[in-house]
Design brief:
With 551 residues, the protein is an all-alpha fold. It contains 23 helices and no strands.
């Protein structure tokens, strides 16, 4: 990086920090509402920006572009279908959440079932954050910086050493943001970074297409389309990362879990000034998610056209493309934007972890009479501890066999299925007992783990052994045999979701609650819904579905 790049990097990074400080200087960070929910003062634009940046980080940009590099536009399902989940959550789930005035999803679970069920759910969220999400954010960001700026050569040290240095640097700075700033600081910095990311993210495919088309974007797009027709098929075959049939099973379950029950996402919305602001923020984020494949999918296909099989690791596709096409004058700005995106996702998850521990666990198990100030302080200490754990795990994600994005999605499947089942049944019924939720949250996780890490390897290995005995060596044929040997993990999620929901409903029939559940109603905020929510939601849904008619 030259002097101009360094100055622009530091300038934009400091600007974000200043804006976040200025916007939060009057917020009472010692109160629970102030620290965890930003004083319930967030507008819809801030919410939308924070939602996007919490979700869209280096693990998304690097990982999903890595998948599109390998398999093409079909991986856009992770983004486009998210829009539908955001709309469903905004219209149907959010009013119920905000009517009760909750701070966390486990808080709702306690109201519906009991305190023990809440504790189990909180622990599952914390495990997901600490072992899966936080480490992948750190690793993907580190990989991006290492590849884009060729840090091993620049610093004269090994790739693994560079990853460790980057992980520790990002982790420490992100921890300071999250632990000492509270939700409002996180959300405001997210909004500024979101604007920067959208601008910077759009520059990469534009410059990439200009390279392909000798300076003309339209010519570049035409060549990309005509030379790589297989990369523009959205309907994945059985041996692809996302077979088309999975869109109707586990894909929507994964999406609804993430956008409809995930604490790190919904905490931003719970901090809204009103229900209408929360709905507008989620629906606006949904519309942008529909457009996001331009940033997180298209560059991967461009990278394939430029590099082909020259890259040894698909996850290197995006940073390698950035390094190739982005003029040096923009490198500092883009580095700052990407740095901000990594920090955003990292500190958002840390803030949510602090919330889960402070609100849901500390008072119940450590100090029943703790003041709000003490509860917030305990949450900050726990957040710091979780940050240290995630930093120690992050560098080892380099060993994930199918790339970091697959690692995220497959790992989260163990938690998303039972959590979504419990929340859905809890909302839809009044008589299902807490016992059913506890069994699903424990046994449901074990069922998925046994399926993916015991049964799946057994059947796949047996099928490949038989194929080898029959002399089958073609890579395509072996891929199909492997795919047919055991259901795709998204199909498994769909099957287990039905089993978990069915079990809870059956238990509700056999052993119903003696006391029927009555939802709590609070008047903390205005819960008048946005009158255009359904109309705009339907319009965006039609746009999403139309993409499968085009590709």
């Amino acid at each position: 990086m030259d002097i101009l790049s360094i100055v622009s990097f530091l300038g934009f990074t400091l600007l974000v920090a200043f804006i976040a400080w200025y916007a939060t200087r009057k917020t009472d960070e010692n109160s629970a509402d102030g620290y965890y929910l930003g004083g319930r003062s967030l507008g819809y634009i801030t919410i939308a920006g924070s939602l996007l940046l919490t979700n869209l980080s280096a693990e998304q940009i690097v990982g999903l572009n890595g998948q599109s590099f390998a398999q093409g536009v079909l991986v856009m399902a992770w983004e486009t279908l998210a829009a539908i989940s955001l709309i469903v959550t905004a219209i149907y789930l959010l009013p119920k959440y905000m009517r009760s005035g909750i701070t966390t999803i486990p808080e709702f679970i306690q109201e519906r079932f009991d305190a023990q069920t809440k504790s189990i759910l909180s622990i599952l969220f914390l495990v997901a954050f600490g072992i899966v999400l936080l480490p992948t954010i750190l690793y993907s960001g580190s990989l991006a910086f290492s590849t884009m700026f060729d840090l091993p050569e620049t610093l004269g040290i090994s790739q693994s050493s560079v990853i460790w240095i980057c992980v520790l640097s990002i982790g420490i700075i992100g921890s300071i943001y999250a632990i000492f700033g509270g939700l409002k600081a996180v959300a405001v910095s997210d909004l500024v970074n979101a604007i920067g990311l959208l601008i910077g993210g759009l520059l990469i495919p534009i410059f990439g297409l200009m390279l392909i088309g000798d300076g003309n974007v339209s010519d570049g797009l035409n060549e990309l389309w005509t030379e790589n027709p297989d990369k523009f098929n959205a309907k994945g075959e059985i041996d692809s990362f996302i077979p088309f049939s999975t869109i109707f099973t586990g894909m929507m379950i994964a999406q609804m879990y993430y956008w409809g029950t995930n604490q790190s996402i919904l905490q931003r919305v719970f901090g809204a000034k009103s229900l209408a602001d929360g709905q507008k923020g989620m629906i606006l984020a949904g519309f942008v998610k529909f457009l996001i494949p331009i940033i997180v999918v298209l560059p991967g296909i461009i990278a394939w056209h430029i590099f082909g099989n020259d890259l040894t690791n698909a996850d290197q596709a995006y940073p390698a493309l950035v390094r190739k096409v982005l003029p040096s004058a923009f490198l500092g700005f883009f580095a700052a934007v990407l740095f901000g995106a990594v920090l955003s996702s990292f500190n958002s998850l840390l803030n949510s972890s602090s919330t889960l521990f402070g609100v849901d666990l500390y008072r119940q198990y450590f100090d029943k009479n703790a003041s709000e100030h003490k509860m917030v302080k305990a949450g900050k200490v726990f957040g710091l501890l979780l940050a240290l754990i995630s930093m120690s795990i992050a560098p080892f994600i380099a060993n994930a066999p199918d790339g970091l994005f697959s690692y995220i999605q497959e790992s989260l499947g163990s938690l998303s299925v039972p959590i979504l089942a419990v929340v859905a049944v809890g909302m839809a019924t009044k008589n299902v007992p807490a016992l059913g939720a506890k069994i699903v949250l424990t046994v449901g996780v074990l069922m998925y783990l046994v399926s993916q890490f015991v049964l799946s390897p057994h059947f796949v290995d047996a099928a490949l052994t038989e194929a080898a005995a029959n002399g089958i060596t073609d890579a395509k044929a072996l891929g199909i045999i492997k795919a047919k040997a055991y259901p795709h993990f998204l199909h498994i999620m769909g099957i287990l979701f039905v089993i978990n929901v069915g079990f809870m409903l059956l238990l509700g029939k056999l052993y119903p609650n003696k006391n029927e559940y009555k939802p709590k109603v609070t008047e903390q905020i205005d819960i008048t819904p946005w009158k255009y929510a359904k109309v705009v939601g339907i319009a965006i849904t039609i746009l999403v579905l139309s993409t499968y008619l085009i590709f």
